[in-house]
Amino acid sequence: MDDKHDEYKRTVFVTVGTTSFDSLVKTVDSKQVKEALSAKGYTHLVIQMGRGSYIPKKSSGEDGSLVVDYFTFSSSIADYLRSASLVISHAGSGSIFETLRLAKPLIVVVNEDLMDNHQSELAEELAERKHLFCARPQTLCEVTKSLNLDTIVPYEPGDANPVAKLINKHLGFPVD
Amino acid sequence: MVDFVSVSLVFVIASTLLVVRILYVISQSSKPARNASQKSLSTLVVLGSGGHTAEMINLLTVLQKERFAPRFYIAAATDNMSLQKARVFEDTLDDKISLKGANSIQFMQIYRSREVGQSYITSVGTTLYALAHALWLMVKIRPQVILCNGPGTCIPICAIAFVFKVLGIRWSHIFYVESIARVKRLSLSGLLLYKLRMADQLFVQWPSLQKQYPRAHYVGRLM
């Protein structure tokens, strides 16, 4: 890819984490969602599909549509997150906070097929606080169409000192 | 008949003593320790996958390393990433404050009681197996402090630690930090430790959880 293109390059990075999330990959790969992303000014779509069996269609974007690429796993997810203009992620807390720390716009898609689905709790709470957008595979298209990045409230990183203090106090260590 | 009465009597006395001892352990665990010597405490850190490990590393970063030493890290045998992250964390620490002796930091693997997505019924068998392995590790480590934050792996460990306390084998302080992913309900691990009062202190990262579980301590977000 030459530099001339990079200037206009706005990449959407999709990550499903260490497992599989076919319904997300399938939805992202659908015509409607890709068109909605194009309409929002995104030019590239990179999908980390994990152990999923649904293979997205690669595209070089010659017809003016999104350039689509995918891979299964990578040790440099952080690099993909850093170079992305928008991240669409599964609801794992590791992935969510890594993206928020990089201050990237984030749509979290909750996997409703998981047995113990507590993951929506975190995504919904953070969405309520306007740090990210929360969707289900079937609502991703709507969420994308109505995406307004100006409403995002930047996420302030947490602090482990309060819990460290309580632990020290309980163990009889001096707390300064 | 006399035999039956005496056997019953012994049984009743033994159970009563056990109950009294358990209640004593629970009440002592909730009180701050008298630690006049200020000696360092051997610490077992139970790591979970992905987000859990990141939260634990954030906590370890601010804990005084010289107080919590030697350190033993345990992660599930199926989890390759967590111990690697802990190794990276330990490597970043200043060598000057690291302890003498090659065994001051150790990394170990443990069988998991339940994989993500495994049904609760088959979990029973795997939990028993994990329990036996945890017992072996706990006999070897006998930690004074146990830090855990969510993975099912910590339940056998904490249960054994509690039994050790009751039997007077080893007194360990159990701290449980509920994952930031839990906003409205405790995880199964958190709920078990809370209901059975096995943890000295149970921390939650969202105020809504603390309202629901008043014995938990709200500590704000770790991430």
UniProtKB/TrEMBL annotation, chain A:
A single GO cellular-component term on record: UDP-N-acetylglucosamine transferase complex
Residue ranges of domain Glycosyl transferase family 28 C-terminal in the record: 11-164
Any one of the GO BP annotations: dolichol-linked oligosaccharide biosynthetic process
Transferase recorded as keyword: yes
GO molecular function term, any single one: N-acetylglucosaminyldiphosphodolichol N-acetylglucosaminyltransferase activity
Annotated keywords: Glycosyltransferase, Transferase
Gene3D superfamilies in UniProt: Glycogen Phosphorylase B
rRNA-binding keyword on record: no
Name of the top EC class for this enzyme: transferase
One Pfam family matching this protein: Glyco_tran_28_C
EC numbers for this chain: 2.4.1.141
Lineage: superkingdom: Eukaryota
Coiled coil, from the record: none
PANTHER family, sorted: UDP-N-ACETYLGLUCOSAMINE TRANSFERASE SUBUNIT ALG13 (PTHR47043:SF1)
Protein's name in the database: N-acetylglucosaminyldiphosphodolichol N-acetylglucosaminyltransferase
Automatic annotation (TrEMBL), chain B:
GO cellular component terms given for this protein: UDP-N-acetylglucosamine transferase complex
Subcellular location: Endoplasmic reticulum membrane
SUPFAM superfamilies found in the cross-reference section: UDP-Glycosyltransferase/glycogen phosphorylase (SSF53756)
Highest taxon of the lineage: Eukaryota
GO biological process, alphabetically ordered: dolichol-linked oligosaccharide biosynthetic process
Keyword annotations from UniProtKB, A to Z: Endoplasmic reticulum, Membrane, Transmembrane, Transmembrane helix
Pfam families, per database record: Alg14 (PF08660)
Membrane-spanning residues: 6-26, 120-138, 144-164
Membrane topology classification: Single-pass membrane protein
Matches recorded under PANTHER family: GLYCOSYL TRANSFERASE-RELATED, UDP-N-ACETYLGLUCOSAMINE TRANSFERASE SUBUNIT ALG14 HOMOLOG
Similarity annotation: Belongs to the ALG14 family.
Protein name: UDP-N-acetylglucosamine transferase subunit ALG14
